[in-house]
Records
---
Amino acid sequence: MPEFFAIDMALPSSLPLPEGPCVVLFEALPEPPLWQWLLAAAQANSAHVETNAANVSNTSITSIQHTGKKPLQIIMLLKDEAELDALAKDASHPLSPFAMAASHIKGGQRFHLDDNCWLDFYLCEQNKAATLATFDKASIDVLICATGQFEQTALKLIHQGSVLIGDTKPGMPAMLSVKPPFKPKDISIVGAGVAGASLALSLLRRGHKVKLYCADSAPGMGASGNRQGAIYPLLTPEDDHLTRLFVPAFLYAKRFVESLAHHSLPFDFCGVLQTGHDERAAERIEKLLGKTWPKEVAVSVDADKANHLAGVAIDKGGIYYPHGGWVSPAKLCEAAIAEAKALGLECHFDVTITAIEQTCDGWRLCTPAGDMDTKELVLATGHRITQLAQTQALQLAPFRGQVSHVPTQGKLGQLKTVLCAHGYFTPGDSGSHCMGASYVRADTSVEYRKQEQQENLHKMQESYPGKDWVKDLDISGQSARAGIRMVSRDHLPMAGAAPDVKAIQAQYQAVGHGPKGAQYWQSHAAPVHPRLYIFSGLGSRGLSSGPLIAECLADSLSGTVPVLEPGVMDALNPNRMWLRKLKKGKALD
């Protein structure tokens, strides 16, 4: 049960908090002194915090009393866009810079204050009480709330949490917290692409002990190994899970890349310009533009504006992603792992995992050179994900993609933004551009193919017919790179507990399908392998979705609150393909 502090915004001299990650949720925007008080806690965590609290006298604020390097998650509920705009315009408030950087999207957006402190803005879709009700009740440690209808919902929530700060009712008894003590987990990750590298960093920031194993000799040698990769969202005309994932993930990906800029990391957020290459594609873009998007996400441009943005003749309108751009995926993996190493990451390359076996308290990784044991295991092995007995039934398919390397010559050097139509083409970096990519199902070969090189060129010629700069595209050097992407049927990634397919089949056989089966699965969780997790299926947009999904998977493993809404997290569940059928009483194939 929780312990209550009736403080009426008066700051206590100390505040007992649980060990490990701490989650603080604000129902209303805090006054600057209270915000500075919280940031003082983050400042005690790390010498690298850059906050307005650094210049406040220690006598004017009080600090959370905690052990060093405690991860701190701060959740801020905003009732509507008007409140976000007002905060952005209030230059005197220390939260104003974050509000200015936030987009007008419903749901959560994450900002890192430093390695151990992060801020989540939630723009409520209905009201604050409804939004609060969606949070995992056991995850909130400190709740700062107001009186009224919201407080009633808040009190229901924190009765299963640990601490409440705010206006409490007179005579309310104080009870001790029962939140279990935090223990850092021993977690092993297999895979060093965008998924594995970003997850390692997210887990270490939450205080876990992490080991990373990779079959390759260096990070980012699989699908994450291209010279340049585009960052832009996968949008749909519908307000579906794809859109609700990719909008906040795309915006977070930009911040993630920029946070690693002190490493040797080539990137340029020069924007992405998407146009239709045929009638069907043009109609789809029109549908996308028929929806109102935040200006930071997507804007409509006419042909003249498109020409100006691109720097070369496009002569057609389309959709422009002003915060999009490109990054070197391989270098991004290297930078994330270098950052994680500074926090204690232990890396092992050239390690081939031939099998995994469940032990009494975790998993055993079997290799030709010997076995290693771990408590928790995350498989982020790209196209190798289905090569193990426990994961071979995952509904993921490999798609080969060859990216062509085109030398900068003629008018290609004038290109100022990433172009996306039937294929994509990046501005130059170190004298070359990336053009791609092929998309061949069920093909895991990475050899160079002349036919796919020609197909990549043809896509550009088809997308921008008759344009003089297209004549400067030269593929005669036969320079290209092929990688294998894993794609799910619904094009959503997979992140979460690994399905125990044999147990699912056994329960299905026992229960059957039809109304009885549907009723059973609607009230029972699908079996999973304990302490085994999947992070895969990032497809061709992993640069845009991977970093934020890594954050949310790390939240799930740490007891902190995923910034993606529960419905989206459910849509990422590796069990979802079976559950969709089972919950409807349909027969499994």
---
Amino acid sequence: MTELPIVERPRRERPGRFQTLALHSYRVILFLVIIAAIHHQHRWYVAQQRGDRVQALVVDQVTGLFPDAKSLGPWDPDHGGQTVLDADEKELGFVVQTFPEADRVIGFSGPTNTLLAFGPDKRILGMSVLHSGDTREHTRDVVENERFMTSLNGLNWQAASHPQVDAVSGATLTSLAIIDGIARRLGGANPSSRFPEAITVEEAKAFFPEATGLTDDPQKPSLQIVQDAQGAEVGKVLRTSPHADNMIGYQGPTDTLVALDPEHRIVGAAIRHSFDNEPYVRYVKEDEYFFNIFKGFSLADIAELDVVDAGIEGVSGATKTSTQVAEALIHTAEEVQAEQPIVVAEPPRWYDFSPRDYGTAIVVLLALLLALTHLRGKRWLRIGFQVVLIVYLGFINADMVSQALLVGWTQNGVAWQVAPGLVLLTAAALACPIFTGRQVYCTHLCPFGAAQDWLRRVPLRAKFPRWIDRSLRLLPALLLVFVVVVAMKHLPISLVGIEPFDAFVIRIAGWATLSVAVVGLVVSAFVPMAYCHYGCPTGAMLRFLRWHGGSGRFTRGDLFVTALAAVAIGIYLS
């Protein structure tokens, strides 16, 4: 009997450490190239949008806030917005947008441009969302929340620049970013008055000869404290502008200086500047009796006065001008009485942990401990921790890594200040596969993955035919192509809908998200971890970045991602 020779299959030579490190680095570089392409393409897109379109609003965008609006004036340098006019060209108020000041305030996945409407009294009438880089679902939840959308109504510019508003449940990051954007837009000076010249020490000396300096009153923003050479307070001064800039005499408004003693009682007043006609303004200035009417009154007393009931008579020959001056003083007293102390905000930190952020951070640290230590094999620990993932990280915090989130942050910047806990979660999700070879997010941090893992215990099993299995495994890669194309071309498609994670916030979840979640869980009851294997683009991305035994070999996956990076670069350069 002839013995056949034994032919041993040649073993593939194991790649060297340098080759493995080089290829692994190449994969990370490809990922960064795609990220950079999306980011720079978005910057270019925004620049083109701003350059191509006329910056003025259309009147239809403000009629919800001003029903009688028929036209909009040009951009007004006083407040940086546009005046709203009715059919008779009468001013109804003005509107301002929070961009560009708020275009770096990131919510869940992008910034929001909010329109603020101010009435003739410079108080907020309402607000609306013009455009949002956040997901449609989160933005819709905010816009439909009447309590939030009317929370600033009645506030003046200064008060609205330090808003204290509760976030919208289920859209916390989006609503907080909107409020932060409004604060940044209004956080500068009040709308410039028609009399930009500040009160000088020389003007104060007319009433307080010992005056050597002026300083702001922290209790009443419109007041200035008059100080002597020793820094002691000798009185206070204020002016009627900008409070009374809309109060017209014969031809225009008048700015009046008012001097108060330390008890806020008027010791004198004088006209500073006026758009009214001469000689009417001169007549009022030269009338010694007119301003003496108000001496000895406190601001609270003045705020309660009525010109007719108080018997305040105008200056002969300048009745309209002097009456306007008196009414402006009364109106200013009302405004000052309503002012609140200035809240000095702490300089913003690059991060600001809230209780929910601390909770997410603790969950991340526990997950790292379970995944990277001997505790990984403790079944009871794993089951208990999965309860925490589903209930706390999923339903309560809704902190999960998704393509919508990653694209939003790539385009607009990372939400360090608004959501530091979510940033930490995302950093752990990306860093662990790259540096440790463990997909910690997929195995120990994803609430949807934990829910699928529980379904392993269902005594039902099915198996796809080989050709169906191989075809379905291409779906996550195809979804990644879809994500890159949508991000690069700025297609009007919500990426939230291709993944199931928003289903944990059932009130704002769209039908696409809910469908993916339901189908993913139902199939996982028969095919273990079906969504992870056949539908998750985020998991596919993390698998590509993972350091593993085959990292030293160039695979079809590497060729695919190389082509994808080339497509992203091609779109950017086209």
